[in-house]
Each structure stands twice: as C-alpha cells, then as structure tokens.
Amino acid sequence: MFNIFSNIPAGGTVFNCLAVILGSLIGMAVGRFVPEKMSTTIFNCMGLFTIYVGVNMALKMQNNIIVLLCLVFGTVTGEIFNLDFKLNNLGDLIKAKLHSSNSKFTDGFVTSTLLFCVGSMGIIGAFNDGIRHDPSLLMTKGLMDGIMSILFAGSFGVGVFFSALALLIYQGAFTLVASCVEPLITQELFNDISGLGGLMIIAIGTNLLKITKLKLCDMLPALVYLIAFSLLIGKFI
Fold first, then answer.
1. What confidence tens digit (pLDDT) does each residue in 95-129 have?
2. N or C: which end of the chain has fewer CB within 10 A?
3. Other beta carbons less than 10 A from residue 205's beta carbon
4. Residue 88: how many CB atoms within 10 A of its CB?
C-alpha cells in the first residue's frame, strides 16, 4: 500500500487528504444520529487527549527561550496581518460559495484546518516524503486525522470536509520545498518545531474544552521565525 503512494508526487499528503475527506463524509452521514450530549462528551474527551498530545510534543523542545521569543514575535506578526481573521473569512467565503446554511461551517473549517496542519508530524513527514519518497509517517498521520475528522464532521458538518483543501496546499508545499531545506534542518531544530507545535496543539485542546478562545492562526508565523532564527544562529556558530 505504501508503494502506491510512494510513486505519487506528495503521495503521503494525498493519502492524508483522502483520509480527512472519507472521515468527514462518514461523520456527516452518522453525525445526525449522535445526541448533542454525547457529542459534547466526545469533544471533551478529544480536547483532553489533544492537550495530552500537545504536552508530549512540547516537552521535546530544547531551546525554550528561543521558542518563547518566536511564539511571541510570530503571534504579534499574525495579529498585525490579521491571519486568524483572514482564515475565518476564507471559511465564510467558501460557505457563501456553497450556499451552506450550516452555522458551524467556519468553526469546523478553521478548527480542523489548524488541528490537521499544525504540528511537526506533518512537517517531518513532508520532509520524509519529499526527500526519501517515504510517505509512511504522513499515512500514519492520515489515519489519525481521519478518525478526528469523523468526530469533527459529526459536530461541525461540511466545513471539516473543506479543510482537506487547506491541508493539501499547506502540507504539499512543505513536501515540494523539502529537497531545498532538508539539508539545513538539524535534529535540535526538529525538536524545537515539535515543541512549538505542541504548544499550539495545547491551545487547540483548551479551545475545544471552551477554556480559552485563542486565535490560533495568528500563532502560525512562529514556525517561520523558529526555522529562520535557528538557521541564522547555526550559520554563525
């Protein structure tokens, strides 16, 4: 099965997107049969598990101060450019184009896009796929995302389905540029990316539990700052 996707450009990402699409379709089909109380219970469980995953990833970071600075500068940059607002607008635009009456469309699109895209597993998997033509890590991630999409689509609806498009663009882009960047990425930087992604995933968990209302998309530039800053330091050491 892996060999089939090894021969497809960005095959791991293609599998990941197909898993999200299939999971979304299943979730939309059976979601209406799940009582609201049960959906709330499931989401509380997913929120707790998401925090657990985020904590495990966050503990891998090695340069705490650098990660903190990148998180602060990245979030400020995101706020200046209104990235969270623009992502929400994108969800609203897709909703309008589809003439969808689902009031949770944008919430589903934004939440699932961030959950599926944020994190080092997708980035590292994209490097493996782009350099070594090994989609196995992204296929594993795809199975996890597929399960999540079933639960999300059951509650949020069709917005989760269209997060597959954002995932294809985001993760596919990392795969395509991997051959240029991969030689510069050290294990230490991978660990810091994992740690930063873990902090963002914790934020997703607290949002799912309705403890916070953090604008997660505004944090995404922190990943760019972290990679750029780490490469700059490495150049002068």
1. 676 666 667 787 888 888 877 886 667 877 887 78
2. C
3. 22
4. 17
Give the residue carrying structure tokens 């954002």. Answer: 166
Angle between helices 120-132 and 136-156 (to 10 degrees): 140
Whole-number Å distance between alpha carbons of 102 and 94: 12
User: Which are the contacts of 165, defined by CB distance < 8 A and separation ≥ 6?
Assistant: 17
- What percentage of residues in the chain have a pLDDT greater than 70? 90
Neighbours of 146 (CB within 10 A): 20
Q: What is the pLDDT of residues 192-211, one digit of tens each?
A: 988 888 898 898 889 889 89
- Asked whether the beta carbons of 152 and 27 are under 8 A apart, the reply is yes
Place of tokens 């510069």: 184
Q: How many of the other CB atoms lie within 10 Å of CB of 32?
A: 8
